[in-house]
Structure prediction request, 397 residues.
Amino acid sequence: MTLKTLRLNKRADRRIKAGHLWIYSNEVDTQTSPLKSFEIGELIQIESAEGKPLGSGYINPNSLICARLVSRDSKYVLDKSLLVHRIKVALSLREKLFDSKCYRLVFGDSDGLPGLVVDRFNDVLVVQMSTAGMEAVKDDIVEALVKVFSPKGILLKNDGNGRKLESLSEYVEVAYGEVPERVELEENGVKFLAPVLKGQKTGWFYDHRLNRDRLRHYVKGKRVLDVFSYIGGWGVQCAVFGANEVICVDASEQATEWVHDNAELNGVADKVGTLHGDAFAALKGLRDEGEKFDVVIVDPPAFIKKRKDTKAGEQAYRRINELAMRLLEKDGILVSCSCSMHLQKEVLFDALRAGSRHIDRNLQIIEQGHQGPDHPIHPAIPETEYIKAIIARVTRV
Prediction:
């Protein structure tokens, strides 16, 4: 296969040589390799300004991140063979980490497959492709997964907003076998039904697995509030871990119904209740009613999706955590999380500090967590580190 060559500007190869995989459009020598000469999703060879090979990858000439490196050996390109190899390498890590077959199997750049995410739910695989390069080899991806796993079903859950940046359409499609509306999974010994067809992202969030497991030391015999609960990942586990009562709050009425299903699945339906509504309004309402909890969990969607959202997002983290602290008993536990890559841990610390001082509380950070090992961090790509989880003790002055 003869591929077109993308040549970089002078010294624009430094990040690539340091380990990064992304190439920005302003780093390309457009005199030698005009971006308009490439097709969206086309496989390419990449070379330095001096003509030295840097490897192979794919390109989207219409995107700010116009190319991504896939292999540093130019003889290997993104095809079924390379996909099978990278998937097997990714699988070998997960098999070392987990006894069950429920985990994030492929985490994009960190597993050498930029733009591809695969979550495993036993014999069902849910796939997300966020780049034109991965979309172009969609059939190869499905064939590679079938070869490695022989699954019962493969779902392409390509309805994320990120696809718009690559000029890709959104769709949800069963690409192989059969996929039910909800699939079974097990996390920390707790069973769930994840709505892979109609739920958020792939239907489940494996990234907080270890952080949720930490709560078994804090919730036994306690009253727990799970804010932004989705289908009960935190709340149902707390009930199984021995909480006396759990209230799950979510803006989606469908999600609250799924919470009850998952509570019943684990025999804790009598311990778990739900509250449907906007989280900020719900917390204010609970405060006005004089409700108190021993543990409050705040795991919101990303308040900062883009850098321009930073100021408003930081204020939102401050507000929601302060509302949560107001609902705690005199000696309570706050679990504060963020999935915003643009929010630095120190800024979240400061939001908690400011909120606690504003309501005259003492705050002690007693544990910190981040994403689980099935979401490995690429040391050259800070964007692959995004989860923050802080467990704090909040007491009266």
